[in-house]
């Protein structure tokens, strides 16, 4: 299927690895120019090289990278120094740490809200009006399945990402919807990423169990009996950016192998 987005330009955050990289790769394979941003320069350069090799189309799309912390004003300024005319924006920031809410002070909450709510809002604010003027725009926020089914030890994430979800529900339904701009949230469940491995390693250490045993036990809790891959997550993201998805906006798209047990 031709998604109709070849030649568009995308900003993809947190794209040096994991789900962000999966989204960037899916987009370049569709002929989309991409600007990728992440904090680690070495990993980002390696990701950019891989993406350039994966780029499809004639002429091949460009791949640019900016090593910056997108959750800071300076980081966003570094990205927007390349321009504001992005047709596609994929917001993505590492989730805050797990823990007991009794141990989180105001600073921990502010940091979580800043990264996982206010940063996506700032990126939307900086790009959405230009998208509307040009008559096309796609904003995808990578949030979490915990927005639908909260996880007790992820209270910082539950709270900050739920705030973003409420904001998007309102802004996606303003006049921009009639100007070709859609805003949707993509909610990952358990995907085979370094973050999941880190979480499982912590769980194994805490329980005194072998990592492999914890890893396999976690798989069994998912109806699909496996973890998702960044590539298939990226494919969903690319579809939401497509011309075919132009009638979808303000939605929370859950990708979790069937783990969420609810009807709605």
From TrEMBL:
<protein>
    <submittedName>
        <fullName>3-oxoacyl-[acyl-carrier-protein] reductase FabG</fullName>
        <ecNumber>1.1.1.100</ecNumber>
    </submittedName>
</protein>
<comment type="similarity">
    <text>Belongs to the short-chain dehydrogenases/reductases (SDR) family.</text>
</comment>
<dbReference type="InterPro" id="IPR036291">
    <property type="entry name" value="NAD(P)-bd_dom_sf"/>
</dbReference>
<dbReference type="GO" id="GO:0004316">
    <property type="term" value="F:3-oxoacyl-[acyl-carrier-protein] reductase (NADPH) activity"/>
</dbReference>
<dbReference type="Pfam" id="PF13561">
    <property type="entry name" value="adh_short_C2"/>
</dbReference>
<dbReference type="InterPro" id="IPR002347">
    <property type="entry name" value="SDR_fam"/>
</dbReference>
<dbReference type="InterPro" id="IPR050259">
    <property type="entry name" value="SDR"/>
</dbReference>
<keyword id="KW-0560">Oxidoreductase</keyword>
